[in-house]
Specification:
Keywords: Membrane, Signal, Transmembrane, Transmembrane helix. This is TIGR02186 family protein. InterPro entries: CHP02186-rel_TM. The protein has one domain: Immunoglobulin-like, CATH 2.60.40. Helices cover 33% and strands 39% of the residues. Strands 2-12-11-4-7-8 form a six-stranded mixed β-sheet. A four-stranded antiparallel β-sheet has the order 1-3-10-9, with no helix packed on it. A two-stranded antiparallel sheet has the order 5-6. Strand 5 and strand 6 form a beta hairpin. 21% of the residues are buried.
């Protein structure tokens, strides 16, 4: 059994080498793989750069295109539609969007629809609309797709969603680089950075890595305390509020006394 296991592992190592001998592969680098959220955090820039590893000369035909997609943790989002009734705006229909990334940025080396075909986009879920999954809308709700579009619109206005065409520099079809701007209102968690190499709209190689975004220092302590010991967090917040109110009152009386 042990011999068979070793043979299986050997086959797994040998076969990819044979099949990938003529493929183009990504060798990636990041200016940072960890983002620390502190009290004065006002956003961050991440430089993503890399090279194309080849065993053969650069293929003839369509030029190489590079797509970089960075996405934050995904979670369901409840979206409500407001309607004006009797002069008052009230909540009407609501749809639970099954999964939407908290942050999503796509950078391309050419216009998006030139870099990748619609079929490949559907397969790899690269564009913003394809990255959002919404399948649970009630049959009675009209234009349910508008709710997913509202998520994109709102988060784009908050600089959380963006498509940045022609922002990936590709040199001699071998080196590439781009910069992803991450805003201050980030959700902590593991962020996925995916790189796609395409020719003629078809994906020829992919690579994925992780960027860790976490609160640090006092922010981390307070966040953990609020989740793990909410009663203690609430009492501490109340004590701070009382102390601040008493201090302000004492200072005001002192000023009036002088």
């Amino acid at each position: 059994m042990r011999v068979l296991t070793y043979l299986a592992l050997l086959a797994a190592l040998i076969v990819p080498v044979a099949t990938q001998a003529t493929e183009e592969q990504v060798v990636l680098g990041l200016s940072r793989d960890r983002v620390a959220i502190t009290a004065n955090f006002d956003g961050s820039d991440i430089l993503i750069f890399g090279a194309i590893k080849r065993e053969t000369p650069i293929p003839d035909g369509d030029p190489l295109q590079v797509i970089v997609a960075v996405s934050g943790p995904s979670a369901p989002v409840l979206v409500r539609r407001k309607e004006k009734k009797l002069g008052i705006w009230v909540n009407a229909d609501s749809v639970l969007v099954d999964s939407a990334p908290s942050f999503y940025a796509v950078a391309t080396s050419s216009p998006f629809h030139e870099a990748i075909s619609d079929t490949e986009d559907l397969r790899h879920k690269i564009s913003i609309t394809r990255a959002i999954r919404s399948v649970g809308a009630d049959m009675n709700i009209q234009n349910a797709q508008e709710f997913a579009e509202a998520v994109v619109r709102i988060r784009a206005n908050d600089a959380l969603y963006s498509i940045r065409e022609n922002t990936v520099a590709v040199d001699e079809q071998t080196l590439f680089r781009t910069e992803i701007d991450m805003p201050a209102n980030l959700t902590e968690g593991n962020y996925s950075a995916r790189i796609f190499l395409t020719r003629g709209g078809k994906v020829v190689s992919t690579y994925e890595t992780t960027i860790d975004v976490q609160k640090v220092g006092l922010e981390r302590f307070l966040f953990n305390l609020s989740r793990e010991q909410p009663i203690v967090y609430g009492l501490m917040s109340l004590a701070i509020a009382i102390a601040a109110g008493w201090g302000a009152s004492a200072a005001f009386r002192a000023l009036r006394g002088t």
